[in-house]
């Protein structure tokens, strides 16, 4: 679109994350005009709470909306993103782009053909620490950033066993595609999405499939090990064509403490931030006066990253132009890394990406 | 040898680490009978302090000793280790085995032909936390240990620029071969030295060669950037044939805080220890009573690791049998990883080790 009236937005997929988006969307300068879900109880809940129609056929929503937020399980991203794009709508697509690289590539192809655009829901980029780091990078405070240590490790945090998150056919994978996707995206974002060269890594499934899986909290209901057939940890090393590298640690479960730390290492300075706590510190040096090291702790504001992401999306829908970040090409780059780690784990070999 | 009299030991290389060994050796149940150095001032200092002869020709020492501790710069390990082994002496060889893989292989060949043995000076293995972790492994407390995060990162700790440590021809490399060797050795030790499959990694030289290298402390005298032509950091991922993996971070200098942490991750429990602080914690879980997580902090004793290493060496010399650990084959495995990381960094590709 490109007008001054508030864009008409719908939600496709009315589960937890769909609900999360809807509650924020009503705060945006946009009109929530409807939702889509194949499950009747989800539709009824949505209609009751938000006072708009919930359809079982997405085309009915497309007829009344300018744009949609797609929050279905991964396996259905392609179906709804492609049909919405084909209908000319703009799409905010929850991460990961898709459950598989092939499916992601089909979404990208549809976006290229469409009048609409597809923005990818990497909400962590909208956190204060990340935006401050990116700003410092633009000011060339770090020099050449050439190595990132990226961690998204839960000691115990397998999502509800038996939910779609732990079902390979629906999710496309486990911890790596669910939360590793954020770590990979942030790392590539800090490196300005360079050309990828080589990925080596391992995924493991050691906890979720056990009768004796010990946990204090679960994200959903636990129906036991039978509902679990995906990875619950991943470790990898990513090498870019320009020589920059990423060390990656991901886990839903691991016998080590939770670790949400990122280290951004540059030739002039570095940054550390903790994704969960929002702690942010810059590490520099100086030779003025006398040789010294500088640790700069930065107080940051806690922001609602999904809300900030939506605001960018709504602005872009109104302007009729895809935002310059969270692009579908970036989503595809992240998906290629995920796919390469799964393939590398399967084969036991590093996977080359430059020549593919 | 194999007798009840104290073994006669000599030191080859009378610099800092040679002196460090000599001061400890006089506490052992062994006789310090002499030293070797090509530099006259080093010999004079040694003779004055320890009251034994310091030779410039190693064969003169070999005539009066049962065993030697070789503490020369890396480039000369081969010369002295091989000549001592050829003379039938036992050798405690400071890490790394050699300045290059080829040189290391020649030492190994000499050891196989010799009546003596060659033990490698990986002293970190003798620290309390490491011995406690290995004991817990033998009791099968961790289940299958399948991933190690190994860090030996100094924020600023380039050794004296202009010393042999920062001279590629003499040291064979920089941070990776100097301190990375400890991290690699400990990681492989925790994994019981499995067959290696693939190594990918990068070494960088970003700080030591700069005019504006900012540092608070240096290990030796600083003669400026001209004396520096080696790596000052390395990141790598090591994959073993049995699927276990190692993530490695090494630095003499990096814009991040110092990091000496090791995480040993098993299927039943894990361990964390900080090489510098000796902090040690075991991370487990339980389902008895109720689901729970257990963090077990372990107070450890600070021990002199070089002294403990020497005690094992002296016992082995007396018994006439190589110790079952710190073996030359282990030293060679570590050297193969170092060599592979350097090659991988050079080529930008992962290096296969299984089929070599």
UniProtKB/TrEMBL annotation, chains A, B:
Residues 133-270 form the GFO/IDH/MocA-like oxidoreductase domain. InterPro entries: Gfo/Idh/MocA-like_OxRdtase_N, Gfo/Idh/MocA_Oxidoreductases, GFO_IDH_MocA-like_dom, NAD(P)-bd_dom_sf. SUPFAM superfamilies: Glyceraldehyde-3-phosphate dehydrogenase-like, C-terminal domain (SSF55347), NAD(P)-binding Rossmann-fold domains (SSF51735). Residues 8-122 form the Gfo/Idh/MocA-like oxidoreductase N-terminal domain. GO terms for molecular function: nucleotide binding. This is Predicted dehydrogenase.
């Amino acid at each position: 679109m490109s007008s001054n009236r508030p864009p008409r937005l719908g939600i496709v997929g009315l589960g937890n994350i769909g609900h999360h988006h809807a509650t924020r969307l009503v705060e945006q300068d946009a009109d929530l005009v409807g939702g889509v879900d194949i499950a009747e109880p989800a539709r009824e809940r949505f209609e009751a709470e938000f006072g708009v129609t919930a359809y079982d056929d997405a085309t009915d929503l497309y007829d009344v909306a300018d744009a949609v937020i797609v929050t279905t399980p991964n396996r259905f991203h392609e179906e709804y993103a492609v049909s919405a794009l084909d209908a000319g709508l703009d799409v905010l697509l929850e991460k990961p782009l898709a459950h598989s690289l092939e499916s992601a590539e089909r979404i990208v192809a549809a976006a290229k053909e469409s009048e609409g655009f597809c923005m990818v829901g990497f909400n962590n980029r909208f956190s204060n620490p990340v935006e401050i780091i990116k700003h410092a990078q633009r000011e060339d405070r770090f020099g050449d950033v050439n190595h990132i240590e990226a961690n998204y490790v839960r000691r115990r945090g397998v999502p509800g066993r038996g939910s779609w998150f732990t079902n390979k056919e629906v999710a496309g994978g486990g911890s790596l595609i669910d939360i590793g996707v954020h770590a990979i995206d942030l790392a590539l974002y800090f490196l300005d999405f360079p050309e990828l060269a080589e990925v080596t890594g391992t995924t493991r499934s050691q906890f979720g499939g056990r009768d004796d899986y010990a946990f204090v909290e679960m994200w959903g209901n636990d129906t036991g090990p039978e509902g679990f057939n995906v990875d619950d940890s991943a470790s990898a090393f990513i090498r870019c064509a320009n020589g920059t590298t990423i060390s990656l640690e991901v886990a839903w479960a691991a016998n080590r403490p939770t670790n949400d730390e990122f280290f951004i290492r540059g030739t002039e300075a570095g940054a550390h931030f903790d994704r969960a706590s929002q702690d942010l510190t810059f590490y520099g040096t100086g030779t003025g006066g006398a040789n010294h090291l500088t640790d700069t702790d930065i107080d940051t504001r806690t922001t609602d990253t999904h809300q900030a992401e939506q605001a960018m999306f709504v602005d872009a829908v109104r302007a009729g132009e895809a935002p310059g970040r969270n692009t579908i090409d970036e989503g595809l780059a992240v998906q290629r890394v995920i796919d390469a780690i799964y393939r590398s784990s399967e084969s036991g070999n590093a996977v080359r990406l430059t020549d593919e």
